[in-house]
Amino acid sequence: MRAFGFLSFGHYGNVPGSRVRTAGDMLRQTVELAEAVDEIGVNGAYLRVHHFARQAASPIPLLTAMAARTERIEVGTGVIDMRYENPLYLAEEAAALDLLADGRIALGVSRGSPEPALRGYEAFGYTGSSDERGADLARDKFELFLRAIDGEKLVDGDPQMTGPGQRLSVEPHSPGLRGRIWWGAGSRETAEQAGRQGLNLMSSTLLTEATGEPFHALQREQIDRFRAAYREAGHTGAPRVSVSRSVFPIMNEQDEMYFGLRSRENNDQIGVIDGHRSTFGKTYADTPDRLIEQLRADEAVMAADTLMLTVPNQLGVEYNLHILQSFAEHVAPALGWLANTEGPVEGHTI
User: How many CB atoms lie within 10 A of CB 37?
Assistant: First the structure.
């Protein structure tokens, strides 16, 4: 592990105990938290994206605001659901964001996780999928998105405007943007596909596989297979790899009340999600010295360059800053962390 950041689901709701009652609260507080942790050296601020739910949705405006109000921190998504996207418009937005942020982005995309709406992407106007989960739709859109950000000339120009025989590419174009695109892989097979495409890898707190292996070992195999596929496809460089975890340093009575005994006693879980028998990673909550020991033994955390910490955003900016500052001061240095003042995060050279 070389870097860490926070991953927010962007929950909001007028419920007891919530400090985030409205969508406006959530948007403003996410920017405030990014500003605060940028100052203490945290490397990244990432958003989950869901539709038809009281959570973060359209991410580009929020990421743009975060980038404008910070100096060093990487801003990104984990992940954008391609089923709901217009690939050419997303290419325009991603390039504009990348230029405004001076390349400080990590745009995670994928087929997406299960949504509360049944085939909700069809309500957005994207029909024609032959897969009940829309995987074919997402895959085709993603291929077009990659062609667009690579600067490929995709459409015929109007001869009256451009002259005869001209082809046009999406603008603006941001050189190097493809190197900041990540695929959110939920299995070992999809991680290999990301490697073959020369992308970066995002892996979350669940895998849509269950082999009997501990979650961290299964995820470490996923990372190894991604890097092997990247190398075998002839790509060179240092692709980035991130994993997500729920990690809470227990520093005081309030931390103990929120995350103490129940979290200490939890283990990996096996369940069914989106029709797949899946493995869910456990929550880490303990004193800093014990967290260091536990995370050093987590093979995937130590194999990745970036650790995304899922935060309980409804508890408000002050408490989430406390969590992240406690991790930065008392846990992360022992895991190999380099603060954002040391420069951009680098992956492992292949």
Answer: 26
Rg (CA), the chain: 20
Domains of the chain: 3-157+173-342 (3.20.20.30)
Q: Nearest 10 degrees: CA dihedral of 105, 216, 48, 231? A: 40
Is the full-model pTM beyond 0.90?
A: yes
Peptide bond just before 61 cis, omega within 30 deg: no
| Tens-binned pLDDT, residue by residue, of the chain (350 aa) | 999 999 999 999 999 999 999 999 999 999 999 999 999 999 999 999 999 999 999 999 999 999 999 999 999 999 999 999 999 999 999 999 999 999 999 999 998 777 899 999 999 999 999 988 899 999 999 999 999 999 999 999 999 999 999 999 999 999 999 999 999 988 888 999 999 999 999 998 767 666 778 889 999 999 999 999 999 999 999 999 999 999 999 999 999 999 986 666 677 555 555 555 555 668 899 999 999 999 999 999 999 999 999 999 999 999 999 999 999 999 999 999 999 999 999 999 98
8 Å CB contact between 306 and 241 = yes
> Can you state the angle between helices 87-100 and 135-149, rounded to 10 degrees?
50
